[in-house]
Specification:
heterodimer; A: alpha+beta; Uridine Diphospho-n-acetylenolpyruvylglucosamine Reductase, domain 2; Uridine Diphospho-n-acetylenolpyruvylglucosamine Reductase, domain 3; Alpha-Beta Plaits; five-stranded antiparallel beta sheet; about 35% helix; globular; B: Fumarate Reductase Iron-sulfur Protein, Chain B, domain 2; Rossmann fold; 4 domains; four-stranded parallel beta sheet; 26 helices; about 10% strand; binds flavin-adenine dinucleotide; binds iron/sulfur cluster
């Protein structure tokens, strides 16, 4: 049962209408896109950093966990109240405070939806490149916390490359300002980078200054079909070796192509075993040259077919091929384990082959697609958990996938973060000394371990290993 | 036997929500409130917990369930096409069953219990004559949608002195080679805007169709679905299925987007033999489009003085993929200069009981519409749903604009009947019966 005084204090800070304690309220703020469910003790909707600071101080006083929450679209359980506590929802802090056309920056509150910011800056001919597939609903705060990436990152980089400064409420309730609004800034430690990607474990971001670029004049989209993943990989390295950095270089592997065959508007050839979607952007004249050059480079590599979109509608038709993947995948099996590993670009074909081998060894379908340009592969292990022993098989499959990834010099998460879902595997990638250092940092900044506990590191919550799937009311 | 689907009937669909959160980008209720209780994902999580007996009903649960316009915007964008609008209907019926009070009655309670709303009530814009109101069947959506106590809140049209049934017999024979068309008018058209019904019937007569317009048809049931009134829905469905089985019809056409959804979606919302009835239901714009009317109209010479016109997509057509047909029909009109409105497809904010229970939010959603409308500079806005017409008119009044709201059919009708060059029209439309 939640302490009455704590509740009253919360109501005083944000107003009673913004403090939710009914069972249904707690239920609907205890999940994210991992589909895991936990019960927080109380949910609070906040409006400004002062409120957040006061709430964090209270949480320390009452020694109760605090969970920053954006759109709840996280894929690794970052916002799950695994130990109960106070969920702090930031979706209503959604003001775009400033778009500075002289200095090419924007300053926003964390609840601003990514695509909304993009549309607003584009009205002034500016451009905020990071484009997670969830951009229409995920928040900038969540993007900062997870260091979100997307297809455009081959050319433009990920969220961390665009964050100039932050306002952060620390785990002890202080309000910090990191970085600034300038491109250059070396005053003191680079705390901005520390907070970006910290998954809400080091503080709650309440204000964000991002860097903007001039909006590219135009883009051109191509669809290229290959007879093998190797020829597709050769195509990718040939393009990059010839000093062309496309905006996006998306690939679909053979298993993915099998899923979408017959379900796409554009024809996918019988012999097609790998597919690349290539997009370039820039001035119109350069685009024509670039597409010609790319096609010139690819033709000798034995492509099956290439198609360059003449206009926006045709480009959308190409992207529809990519969009058809998710809906068609579910038809294989009901349960999906979606991992976003990343390997060095040149290792993509090796990794795909390794995944095919794991798939046949354990007899589970694995569907792979992703960002060939930066080696980020979305690995989807498709199973039916109703089958006896399947969970154990999945655990083995995932372990093997992550081990292989790390052995190739890759990372177990390219963009989704660690949260709870990947915490058991972090040790595969990070050596004990480094892990220890990270935990010391966490301990120093959050002495009471109240800021989003039970995430990233298993040690903060040993019971983490057994993920409860059932609803459970935390007895706190 | 025809009955409503229950929460249990929707169990599989409810479990298909993967909690991705994509609906946040498309739900008008969420975009106003920005809280999880307002969005499809939150409602489905509650529905699932209700099914599993894992949640007690509370004030917030009821409030969250009332925060839904049943617009279906989430459904078309959901990767798994989870029918949240239908599921919320089932939850509301379940809540009404448990408490014995329908959401509308609660909503009325909310209005009369709030002083700020009561003040608005005092500035009553138009009064409804109780005499006219009494003639409307108790099960009609108009009573559920605009209960007498709540009516003065918003600008709504005066009830027409005569309803549509008074103007036409049940059967009007046409060209024997042409299909027989059933007309489902719906409450909005029958009682508030009978002229739209007249345009609808007269256009079809002009084109030579036989018309069956059963006078014992009832409300489409959408307002009752919105209010969570299960028994009324069942009564209406049985009544309508029986009414249209009295004579063989090839189509059942609607001129109201909500009715189209109400009687066309029965296989998704009811259990029992409703397929045959619902499969005949078609929106009149789709029908006219399929008959090629837009081609014929495009061939007419463009008029020298043209009006600037835009179009608002009613949710209940948009979510059925009907966006092209009304637009192309409007664009084909010789006296129209069509201007597309930004976010033409976003909900107007009416949403059945939503606008009664949450008039302020409903008004805010309407204000967004008015803003986009203003930007088009159009003098007229057409739409294909009397509900949207009421809401748009209200939004326009509140924003102090002077744009005129009309039904698409009004323009089609006036073009067909006023085309000076009637012989030319006859040439284009061989079926036009100019003797009329
Ligand atoms: C369909 C789909 C597609 C996706 N595609 C991509 C993709 O292409 N690339 C990608 O990178 N990700 C993707 N994601 C994952 C997810 O959308 C991102 O991780 C996103 O950044 C999460 O934002 P959110 O607002 O939903 O955050 P939440 O899920 O609410 O929270 C995520 C984490 O951030 C923390 N947090 C949230 N706000 C703050 C704040 N203001 N301060 C401190 N911590 C905070 C939370 O505590 C939690 O740990 C996808 C998800 C879905 C469902
Ligand atoms: S979009 Fe569909 S699947 Fe995703 S959370 Fe919303 S209702 Fe669930
Ligand atoms: S039907 Fe409309 S209002 Fe209701 S949840 Fe879906 S999008 Fe939101």
């Amino acid at each position: 049962m939640l302490n009455k005084d704590l509740l009253l204090s919360l109501e005083r800070i944000v107003g009673p209408e913004n403090v939710l304690t009914e069972q249904s309220d707690r239920l609907i703020h205890g999940y994210d896109a991992t589909q895991k469910q936990y019960m927080p003790d109380v949910v609070v909707y906040v409006e400004n950093s002062l409120q957040v600071s006061e709430i964090v101080k209270l949480a320390n006083q009452y020694n109760i966990p605090i969970l920053p929450r954006g759109a709840g679209s996280g894929f690794t359980g970052g916002s799950l109240p695994v130990q109960g506590g106070i969920v702090v929802v930031l979706t209503r802090m959604n003001a775009i405070l400033d778009i500075d056309e002289d200095n090419l920056t924007a300053t926003v509150e964390p609840g601003v939806v990514t695509a909304h910011l993009q549309r607003e800056v584009e009205k002034s001919g500016l451009f905020y490149p990071p484009d997670p597939a969830s951009k229409e609903f995920s928040t900038i705060g969540g993007n900062v916390a997870e260091c979100a990436g997307g297809p455009r990152c081959v050319k433009y980089g990920v969220t961390k490359d665009y964050i100039l400064g932050l306002e952060v409420v620390t785990p002890t309730g202080d309000i910090l300002h990191t970085g600034g609004v300038t491109m250059k800034n070396v005053a003191g430690y680079d705390l901005t980078k520390l907070f970006v990607g910290s998954e809400g474990t080091l503080g709650i971001v309440t204000r964000i200054t991002v860097k903007l670029l001039p909006k590219p004049a135009a883009k051109k989209t191509m669809l290229v079909q290959f007879s093998s993943i190797d020829s597709a990989a050769r195509a990718v390295s040939t393009i990059i070796r010839n000093k062309i950095i496309p905006t996006t270089l998306e690939f679909l592997d053979a298993t993915t192509i099998e899923c979408i065959r017959g379900k796409t508007g554009l024809p996918v050839l019988e012999k097609c075993r790998a597919l690349l979607i290539i997009e370039v952007d820039g001035d119109q004249e350069i685009l024509e040259k670039q597409t010609d050059k790319i096609l010139g480079l690819l033709t000798p590599l034995g492509i099956l077919e290439s198609r360059v979109a003449a206009d926006h509608t045709e480009a959308e038709a190409i992207w529809d091929v990519r969009r058809s993947v998710s809906p068609s995948m579910r038809k294989i099996n009901p349960d999906k384990f979606n991992e976003d590993i990343v390997v060095p670009r040149s290792k993509v074909p090796d990794m795909i082959r390794a995944l095919e081998k794991i798939s046949s060894t354990y007899d589970v379908p694995i569907v792979n697609f992703g960002h060939a340009g930066d080696g980020n592969i979305h690995v989807n292990v498709m199973v039916d958990l109703q089958q006896p022993g399947m969970q154990a098989t999945v655990d083995k499959v995932l372990l093997e996938i992550f081990q292989t990834t790390v052995d190739m010099g890759g990372s177990i998460s390219g963009e989704h973060g660690i949260g709870t879902a990947k915490a058991p595997f972090l040790r595969l990638e990070i050596d004990p000394a480094t892990l220890h250092y990270m935990q010391m940092l966490k301990k120093a900044l959050d002495p009471n371990n109240i800021m989003n506990p039970g995430k990233i590191f298993l040690e903060t919550s040993p019971e983490q290993l057994a993920f409860p799937t059932q609803l459970q009311d935390d007895p706190q | 036997m025809i009955r409503n689907k229950t929460l249990q009937d929707y169990e599989q669909s409810i479990n298909q929500c993967v909690r991705c959160g994509a609906c946040q980008a498309h739900c008008p209720a969420y975009l106003q409130q920005r809280n999880e209780g307002a969005v499809a994902r939150g409602k489905l999580a509650i529905a699932r917990a209700m099914l599993q007996g894992e949640v007690q009903t509370g004030a917030h649960l009821t409030e969250d369930m009332s925060m839904c316009l049943l617009c279906g915007s989430c459904v078309i964008k959901c990767p798994n096409k989870v029918p949240t609008d239908k599921i919320v209907g089932a939850v509301r019926r379940e809540l009404s069953r448990q408490s014995g009070v329908s959401l509308t009655s609660r909503a009325i309670g909310a209005i009369t219990g709030s002083t700020s709303l009561m003040k608005k009530l005092a500035q009553a814009v138009r009064r409804v004559s109780p005499a006219v109101f009494r003639k409307i069947p108790a099960s009609s959506g108009l009573r559920l949608r605009f209960p007498i106590q709540g009516m003065e809140l918003r600008t709504i049209p005066l009830f027409a002195p005569k309803n549509l049934f008074a103007y036409y017999p049940e059967y009007q024979p046409g060209d024997p080679d042409k299909p027989v068309i059933g007309i489902f008018a719906g409450c909005g058209i029958t009682y508030l805007y009978p002229e739209i019904g007249k345009y609808m019937i007269e256009i079809l007569r002009l084109l030579g169709y036989s018309i069956f317009f059963p006078h014992d048809q009832g409300c489409c049931g959408i307002p009752a679905r919105s209010a969570g009134n299960g028994p009324v829905i069942e009564k209406l469905v049985r009544q309508n299925v029986a009414a249209f089985s009295r004579r063989r019809v090839d189509y059942i056409l609607t001129g109201c987007a909500s009715c189209h959804a109400g009687i066309g979606e029965l296989p998704e919302t009811m259990v029992g033999p409703v397929e045959e009835f619902s499969s005949k239901v078609m929106d009149i714009h789709v029908f006219l489009y399929q008959q090629g009317l837009h081609h014929s109209l495009s061939a007419l010479p463009r008029s020298t003085s043209r009006i600037d016109l835009t179009y608002h997509d009613p949710c209940h057509l948009r979510t059925h993929g009907i966006t092209r047909e009304p637009r192309e029909l409007l664009q084909s009109l010789p006296a129209v200069r069509y201007r597309e409105m930004e976010n033409a497809g976003s909900c107007c904010g009416l949403g059945g009981t939503f606008s009664i229970a949450h008039y302020e939010q409903s008004q805010k959603i309407g204000a967004l519409k008015a803003e986009n409308l203003k930007k088009t500079g159009a003098q007229y806005i057409a739409t294909a749903c009397p509900g949207c017409m009421i809401q748009l008119q209200d939004a326009i009044n509140q924003a102090g604009l002077h744009t005129q709201v009309m039904h698409t059919l009004e323009l089609l009708h006036s073009t067909l009947t006023h085309t000076a060059d009637i012989s030319r029209l006859k040439e284009l439309l061989p079926s036009v019966n100019t003797n009329q």
